[in-house]
Specification:
479 residues; 12% strand; alpha+beta; six-stranded mixed sheet; binds manganese (II) ion; three-stranded antiparallel sheet
Length: 479
């Protein structure tokens, strides 16, 4: 089992400052409290708080959060009470553990419960964002050990992870964590789609890796020749769930997913980023409209990088992402990275205050909007600014862009459902097919089995590229 010394070593490697005696004390305290307890997998229970703490260390969080990670299940599962924690570890740690405990399990139990969970999560976040980091780390380990649970529970936990946890991680700019949560949940939430996807991409991805090794070698040589300081270049497969989402939105055409494996170029500073994109464009012709400068104009969650897609070796299409190490760190850890920079009092190259302005806004707004319900509603809109979750009558959840319509929903379920849809019921009321859907809606599509062709008029209002492509395809086929 991982020891307190292992944890301290890990913290040191990641430049996290932590009092060794305090960590050892928390370690022994939690070990004692969980003594004799077992996980469903049969492993000692204490393996779980340790794994949670490791993630928090990797995220580069502060001492109180790391200690609270070790202790997070102590009051819930044992007779030890919060006052004991206060006595031993101080108010801040005790308060964090208390808040994590109060937040409790976020359960997926249909639409109303979903809204309620979201609210509780957002309140906790507004109180102290570190509570959410602990919940994320806790959830990630529970997902990674989901195999030991009964299938029904697996599906429930996996679904709520994709539905509640991942979008919040995304909104906080924690791309790596979002990807890790979604990928761990995917096989349990949508087992069939997962299997199908694995079968389809196994070969394309391994072929692609081989090809990219060659591209990487050429690029490294040319960047060096141009005098650009490269930290590293790597070709990395996309997260599986995010690939699945992309396929849904691109009419299921795997050849159109240019970034199946994208090449990341990490350089020393911002001017090297622009120099490197110059080198890439000198070597290979860029595709029109695919050059994106997220350094000058960061994404709403703070993401910064230069993106370009080129006709690479042998005329194949490849996406490159170019950024500095600090931007890379921020892309993976998001607000956690921001937190770490602030804690260490370092000047960062990123205009951090602006990047996470919306978090401040959320906290400030609490004072401005006295009505609690109204305040929570406004928070929800912020977190899910560009995406909604719509339920099937069976309780499955589909993630769609804002303003998506029942036709988008129908195509997201299946091409045949899309082509044959005639009416839709939203929350048990018949609506026209161009009605914008909202998060939490239950949508039922009514189909006409004899209908074969999509209605070209739908092209005027559908929001997803997937629906558009499928409508065009169907219309063309019947012309
Ligand atoms: Mn836990």
């Amino acid at each position: 089992m991982t020891t307190a010394e292992d944890l301290l070593k890990r913290a040191k490697e990641r430049n996290v400052t932590i009092d060794g005696d305090l960590l050892r004390l928390a370690y022994d305290f939690a070990a004692e409290a969980h003594k004799g307890q077992k996980r469903l997998s049969g492993e000692p229970y204490f393996t779980h708080p340790i794994a949670t703490t490791e993630t928090l260390i990797d995220l580069g969080l502060d001492e109180a959060t790391i200690l609270a990670g070790l202790l997070h299940d102590v009051p819930e599962d044992t007779s030890v009470i919060i006052e004991d924690l206060q006595k031993n570890f101080g108010n801040e740690v005790a308060q964090l553990v208390n808040r994590v405990t109060k937040l409790g399990e976020l359960r997926y139990r249909g639409v109303e419960r979903y809204q309620e969970n979201l609210r509780r999560m957002i309140i906790a976040m507004a109180e102290d964002i570190r509570v959410i980091f602990i919940k994320f780390a806790d959830r990630l380990h529970n997902l990674q050990t989901l195999g030991a649970l009964p299938p029904e529970k697996q599906k429930r936990i996996a679904t709520e992870s994709i539905e509640i946890y991942a979008p919040i991680a995304n909104r906080l700019g924690m791309g790596e964590l979002k990807g890790a949560i979604e990928d761990a949940a995917f096989p349990f939430a949508l087992p069939k789609s997962y299997e199908q996807l694995l079968k389809r991409i196994r070969e394309p991805i391994s072929e692609r890796r081989l090809y990219l090794t060659n591209v990487q070698n050429i690029l490294e040589r040319e960047l060096a020749a141009d005098g650009i300081d490269v930290v590293f270049v790597d070709g990395r497969a996309k997260h599986l769930y995010s690939l699945y989402r992309k396929l849904l939105n691109h009419g299921d055409d795997i050849a159109k997913i240019y970034d199946l494996v994208a090449v990341r170029v990490i350089v020393k500073n911002v001017s090297d980023c622009y120099a490197a994109i110059g080198t890439i464009h000198r070597l290979w012709t860029p595709l029109k409209g695919r050059i994106k400068d997220y350094i000058a104009q960061p994404k709403p969650n703070g993401y910064q990088s230069l993106h370009t897609t080129v006709f690479c070796e042998e005329g194949k299409i490849v996406e490159f992402q170019i950024r500095t190490q600090a931007m890379h760190h921020a892309a993976e850890y998001g607000i956690a990275a921001h937190w770490q920079y602030d804690e260490m009092g370092k000047q960062s190259v990123r205009p951090t205050a602006e990047r996470f302005a919306w978090v401040k806004e959320i906290l400030d707004r609490q004072a401005e909007i006295p009505d609690r319900e109204q305040y929570l509603e406004s928070l929800k809109l912020d977190i899910f600014r560009d995406q909604i979750f719509v339920f099937t009558p069976g309780g499955d959840v589909l993630q769609l862009p804002e303003e998506a319509t029942p036709v988008d929903f129908a195509y997201a379920i299946h091409t045949d459902i899309g082509n044959r849809c005639v009416t839709a019921k939203v929350n048990d009321h018949i609506v026209s097919l161009d009605t914008p859907l909202h998060s939490g809606d239950v949508c039922e599509i009514i189909v006409d089995k004899n209908r074969k062709r999509a209605n070209p008029d739908w092209l005027d209002f559908v929001k997803t590229a997937g629906a558009k492509a499928k409508i065009r395809q169907s219309v063309r086929r019947h012309e």
